[in-house]
Amino acid sequence: MANKLGVGVIGCGNISKAYFSLAPLFRGIKMRACADINMEAAKARAKEFKLRAETVIDLLKDEEIDIIVNLTIPAVHYEVSKAVLDAGKHVYSEKPFVLSIEEGLDLKKRAEKKGLRIGSAPDTFLGGAHQLVRNLIDSGKLGAITSGTCHVMGHGMEHWHPNPDFFFQPGAGPVLDIGPYYVTNLIQLIGPVKQVAAFATTPAKERTISSKPRAGEKIPVNTPTTIHALLEFANGAVITLNTSWDVWSHGHAPMELYGELGTVFVPDPNFFGGEVRFTDSAKPVKKLPKWNHPFGVPNEMHGQGMMANYRTAGLADMAIAIAEGRPHRCSMELALHAVDVMTGILRSGESGKYVAMQTTCERPAALGVKDAKALLAKKN
């Protein structure tokens, strides 16, 4: 692929730094410009990463930009992505892709009319650990997956995020903010979901920020913060998904999948790497040997140790897929089905009824070692 697609970013907040710093790892894309409704934020990021700072309107008109990455808050994902498509550019969105099926279908129609692509985070399921689990499942060593559990629980973002307000508003909460990592990984490992059921509660109606610079400020909570859900998959598997921002500590594993022939312990889907363990029937639990997958190699400090972080892998895969004329893995169909599952969980929590999915999708193509290496830029 001789020519790289020019990439612009709308939204220069916290997550933008990961995109700008990690994009050079990949071929097929070139970060060129950024925009934000706060021009000072755009200028600061532009200076930090040697990019052009533009207004949103100018970025949409920029002829050197082929793909725009939508890093705005979830409440405006649809409006921004619509503007990008209407401007004739491909769009790649942060999660959640949209907040309703209707919004997603409208974007799909706009993209198809102009021959454009839509992609969406999360791309952590492309990580070495999760692709190792995918390889294990696809090999048949676990037999059919029949059930499982997922737990993503903590005590909220007000303890570390500088502006945590939107995490506690409709469009966020633990299901729509952290849930995409878990739900998307489940779909790529097992397949589409048939129906869901859930209970949802909001124990605290307001939160006190303990992070700087707004420590001590109180913010309202207008979306459920503890949701226990049950997902029935099209293949018959039944998975429990517990999400909460009302838990100080727990001892649950992030994800366990139970097959006819064994169990696999899946590391946190919020990250690319981690240890994969499994049982072969009644034999003792053991670690799978390290896989030579490039997206499982630790490359970034996190807390007290190194971790694997390859965000923008999904964006690069989309850019290369456009050039090669093949489907991209972080697809609109996958993202929309995940939104269907998550919004269905919230509706079930409100109504107390089962909610059937309105959409479906194919599992994205696996990303083996060879294909992952093909996404990386050649080292000098």
UniProtKB/TrEMBL annotation:
Residues 130-264 form the GFO/IDH/MocA-like oxidoreductase domain. It comes from the Bacteria. It comes from Mesorhizobium argentiipisi. The keyword Oxidoreductase applies. The keyword Oxidoreductase applies. The lineage of its organism: Bacteria, Pseudomonadati, Pseudomonadota, Alphaproteobacteria, Hyphomicrobiales. Residues 6-118 form the Gfo/Idh/MocA-like oxidoreductase N-terminal domain. This is Gfo/Idh/MocA family oxidoreductase. Keywords: Oxidoreductase.
